[in-house]
Q: What sequence folds into this?
């Protein structure tokens, strides 16, 4: 990935990657957490077994899926942590999922008393959530687990061997990997992700909207504003996927980038999948 800290706020809302902390796995092992063995080793704080099993079930097909679809082979583990153990592992605010490595590990909050859950809960207040099998609280918790897929997207985007000329294209491709996985393996989960993301896009009033600000400020725009950027990116991911599916990733990987103006990158993406310029205009990104 970028080999530097990314504050991920939502798979949609973002995603954080901490490649400056190669010892994260060792730190988690030192906590002597409960472990659920399997293809994906899952560490969890006491009382989080149910959430951990749900997250593992969500991610369990990722390794064979990306190997088959794109020839990318990579292993990873996950950890669901409560706030006390989170602070022993990461300086990020509790609830902002992140990935660290290699060796890769995706870290998620194990409880709902976290910053991301509060943002989502406030935003969806008064809106119906299109998931009859879960309560609204459960849907929000599950939505946050979906961010693990965005983090996973960073892993596979990095190992895929593509180039990322700036932050927003890297976030875009990570979300694309996640969306591709969901559409193939759990389209109902994809609907939940998009449904809540649509609400966030309506309810968050961003101070910053330009891709230039995203590039220079990144996480410094603030948690909610960062979430807005991620949600806007998801909107375009969905559109491109509906046009091209997995073929877009192949096209992107083969593209030869040059270091030019910010508009160049939008125009380059426009060549790969028409609609980026309209997307940028709609959300005041240019």
A:
């Amino acid at each position: 990935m970028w080999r530097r800290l990314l504050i991920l706020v939502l798979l949609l809302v973002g995603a954080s990657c901490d490649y400056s902390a190669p010892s994260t796995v060792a730190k988690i092992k030192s906590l002597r957490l409960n472990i659920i063995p399997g293809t994906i080793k899952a560490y969890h704080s006491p009382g989080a077994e149910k959430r951990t099993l749900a997250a593992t079930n969500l991610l369990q097909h990722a390794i064979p899926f990306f190997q088959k679809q794109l020839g990318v082979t990579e292993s990873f583990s996950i950890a669901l942590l409560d706030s006390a153990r989170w602070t022993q592992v990461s300086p990020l605010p509790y609830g902002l999922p992140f990935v660290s490595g290699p060796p890769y590990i995706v870290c998620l909050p194990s409880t709902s008393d976290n910053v991301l859950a509060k943002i989502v809960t406030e935003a969806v207040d008064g809106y119906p959530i299109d998931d009859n099998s879960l309560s609204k609280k459960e849907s929000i918790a599950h939505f946050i687990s979906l961010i693990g897929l965005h983090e996973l997207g960073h892993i596979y985007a990095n190992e895929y061997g593509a180039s990322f000329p700036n932050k927003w294209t890297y976030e875009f491709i990570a979300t694309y990997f996640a969306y591709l996985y969901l559409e193939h393996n759990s389209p109902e989960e994809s609907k939940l992700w998009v449904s809540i993301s649509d609400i966030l896009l309506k309810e968050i009033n961003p101070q910053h909207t330009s891709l230039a600000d995203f590039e220079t400020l990144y996480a410094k725009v603030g948690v909610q504003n960062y979430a807005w950027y991620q949600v806007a990116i998801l909107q375009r991911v969905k559109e491109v996927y509906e046009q091209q599916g997995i073929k877009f990733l192949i096209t992107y990987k083969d593209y030869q980038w040059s270091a030019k103006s910010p508009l160049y990158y939008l125009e380059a993406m426009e060549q790969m999948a028409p609609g980026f310029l309209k997307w940028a205009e709609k959300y005041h990104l240019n």
